[in-house]
Design a protein that fits this description.
It is built from 8 helices and 6 strands. It is of the alpha/beta class. It has one domain: NAD(P)-binding Rossmann-like Domain (Rossmann fold, 3-Layer(aba) Sandwich), CATH 3.40.50. GO terms for molecular function: 3-dehydrosphinganine reductase activity. This is 3-ketodihydrosphingosine reductase.
């Protein structure tokens, strides 16, 4: 309660839901996004969940992908009004779907300073960003994506906030998410000895399950490739 939480991409989707979840727990919120109208709309929605009359939702319209100095200035303004930032949630941006060869090239140590990181692996989530992603998603990717259900942003946000508060390095949702985070843990830090032991013990089982997943995904890709080749032959003979 009383923590200052800054959420980039906080005007919609998972970002907005994380802001709501933190607000429910008494936090002060700074929303950062490009669209001012969406920011004000999100602010009204978040304020409905206040637990005391001292809470504040501050809106800042800025493109975090552009001028760093401008971003730095608005964060300073937020700190002057609501105090030091206790939690920074980066939800700005969206997935860019497409084949690797078709995508354009773009560029995109904190522990000694007592800053801790939680890396979230959200599943397919019913957000405006996911809807936009589906517009350019290749058939293979869409079919693979459809093998699992789409989650609600409120559900995803609640899990991310819970893991961040507990200091967990990884945040995942559901059995598939847990399995993926365990399989890709590598040199990632662990929150407890128990977590590390669980990863060691389950690694073999999860790898076996993953091989079945990969077999299914490969089958989908092959079927799509054969279908595409048949279509190309039909077009040539037409």
């Amino acid at each position: 309660p009383g923590a200052h939480v800054v959420v980039t991409g906080g005007s919609s989707g998972i970002g907005k839901c994380i802001a709501i979840e933190c607000y429910k727990q008494g936090a002060f919120i700074t929303l950062v996004a490009r669209n001012e109208d969406k920011l004000l709309q999100a602010k009204k929605e978040i304020e409905k969940h206040s637990i005391n009359d001292k809470q504040v939702v501050l809106c800042i319209s800025v493109d975090v992908s552009q001028d760093y100095n401008q971003v730095e200035n608005v964060i300073k303004q937020a700190q002057e009004k609501l105090g030091p930032v206790d939690m920074l949630v980066n939800c700005a941006g969206m997935a860019v779907s497409g084949k690797f060869e078709d995508l354009e090239v773009s560029t995109f140590e904190v522990k000694p300073y007592n800053v801790y990181i939680t890396v979230a692996y959200p599943p397919d989530t019913d957000t405006p960003g996911f809807a936009e992603e589906n517009r350019t998603k290749p058939l293979e990717t869409r079919l693979i994506s459809e093998t699992t259900s789409v989650c609600k942003p409120e559900q995803v946000a609640k899990q991310i906030v819970k893991d961040a508060i507990q200091g967990n390095f990884n945040s995942s949702l559901g059995s598939d998410g847990y399995m993926l985070s365990a399989l890709t843990c590598g040199m990632a830090p662990v929150t407890s000895i128990t977590e590390g032991l669980q990863q060691v013990v389950t690694m073999g089982l999860f790898r076996t399950i993953a091989l079945f997943y990969l077999g299914s995904f490969d089958s989908i890709v092959r079927r799509c490739m054969m279908q595409r080749e048949k279509s190309e032959i039909a077009d040539k003979t037409a």
